[in-house]
Amino acid sequence: MSDIKIKEAPVADEQAQPILTHERSLSQKIASGSEASDILDQQMVMLGIQLVTQLNVLIKTSRIYERTNAALDKPVDAMLTLIKTMAQDQPVTLRLQNDFLFLGNSHLRVNAQQMAVATSIIDALNAWKIGGMIFSLTVESKDLREFAALFVSLDPDNKTIEDLQKEITARGIVGIELEEQRQLQIRQGPGTAGNIGPGTAGNTGPGTAGNTGPDGTGSADLKVQRKMNAMNGYAKVAGSVGTLTQASREGGTASFKQAKRAIQNIIDLMVDDEAAVLGLTTLRCHDQYTHNHSVNVSLLSIALANRVGYPKVELADLGLAALFHDMGKSTIPMEVLNKPGEFTDEDWVAMRKHPTEGVLSLSKMRGITNLPGRMAAASFEHHMNQDFSGYPKLTVPWTISLTGRILTIADCYDAMTSSRVYRREPMSPSKVLNMMLSKSGKSFDPVLLKLFVNCVGIIPIGSLVMLETSELAVVLKPAEDKANGERPIVRVITDPQGNSVDHGREVDLTEKDETGNFRHNVIRLIDNTEYKFDTSRYFT
Ligand SMILES: [Fe+2]
Ligand SMILES: [Fe+2]
């Protein structure tokens, strides 16, 4: 039985692929930054994808055959050729970060056909918590064979990457080094902008906070894990929206597959712990390329739609539609979008076109052969307002879709609480919510707005409050009991004198003492923008 299965495994197609090579000394001749160097980079990326493909074949084949078997010749030879071609100036580094593959610092973008291979390697590396594989020129056929045999014979469930590394050394394998996985750190410190993306990501080594490192100092605590997952999920969505927006800006094509997968992942996380995911929307990042606004709007929309009772499959469509609601802004020049200070009338004219431009941009993108109405609606309707006081102005009767109404709420909430959108000063979450409630039935669908308040809480996630002990606390989670809606779960972040405390205690404000009185009370709401507190740090 197992024999039959075994024979199917090698993938003939992958092995038959031609190897693309370029002149070895080319890299030395080309000045970096030139057009030719871009071409070289592209070639390197193509070679990198071939390296991944061959590595995948090698691993798969090694699961079946002995290291000396001729079946391994092809992938081994192919890998050696690729490594020798690429490793002229420096070793070839294949990296895995947040489930994206990189060759050095270049993202290996894979197409739909290559996706299965990439996923297979990503899974294999993840199982070992390998963050990078470095191949140098000294690597030989025997090293690759021996390494692959080792890789498939040891069990990552009861061996660590260190064990694997030790075995590599013990067996005299040269030219292959492993790097540990590096966790993405969204926050660098209080008040600083978050950092998302491979080149820029701050990395925490093993044993530092939030990292369940092999040295045992990290805790495998479910909560920490969930937070890490939520942050990684957030980073992935941000990454995919960045890639797609840029592709649209450059007039290129892009596929929505990656974004869809990332959104799906977020939905799964949200089902587990909505508050942990929503907490990330309080992240205030000023790096335009990370597209926090789009991601936040997507997360808030999904949470709201979930309350409305959308089926899970539809949540993904809605999340995707929300993610690209501002796609029309890719037609607005960067100088306008990044303008310090006020917009001119002309800027506003351009700005007000973004909902309709969005429909056009979206319809041009590959991957939407049949542009889902929801996506077009999301872009078209998100500034219309319930009473049509917004834009675009229509001369025909219109009914705003449920998606459009959900999005209007999520969009406004995030735009107002964040300083990035429209250059406004950010407002505290509760002020925004009050302002929005005052426009209930005018700008916003009143029923949806009520449900939204349930999502973020009357004192919304990310708000700062002062407890009667004079300690400051940040709202982590809305109260589960709606009757006590003004009593969320908070984390204490300062002592009574206002000095910040690390790992402050979590307090459930609905908790009562023996006499039936509430143990803790909020005496006032603090304007976090006034205090310049970056509350997102308490979620990470
Ligand atoms: Fe917009
Ligand atoms: Fe927006």
If you had to describe this structure to a student in words, what would you say it looks like?
The chain has helices spanning 2-8, 12-16, 26-29, 35-62, 73-86, 115-128, 141-153, 161-170, 222-249, 257-272, 274-279, 292-308, 312-323, 334-337, 345-352, 354-364, 373-381, 402-417, 429-438, 446-456, 528-531; strands at 92-97, 100-103, 106-107, 130-135, 176-180, 183-185, 202-204, 464-467, 472-477, 489-492, 506-508, 522-526. The protein is of the alpha+beta class and 540 residues long. A hairpin with a 4-residue loop joins strand 8 (464-467) and strand 9 (472-477). Helix 12 (292-308) packs across helix 18, helix 12 packs across helix 20 and helix 17 packs across helix 18 (402-417). It starts with a helix and ends in a 9-residue tail after the last helix. The model is unreliable at 1-35, 184-220 and 285-290 (pLDDT under 50). The chain binds fe (ii) ion (2 copies). Residues 293, 297, 325-326, 411, 415 line the site of one fe (ii) ion. One fe (ii) ion (FE2) binds next to helix 12 and helix 18.
Sheet of most strands: 5 strands, antiparallel
Bound molecule types: fe (ii) ion
Number of helical regions: 21
How many E strands?
12
Helix content: 40-55%
Q: How much of the residues is beta strand, in percent?
A: 5-15%
Shape: globular
Mean pLDDT: 77
Distance between the termini: 48 Å
The assigned structural class equals: alpha+beta
Task: Record the strand order, biggest sheet.
Answer: 3-2-1-4-5
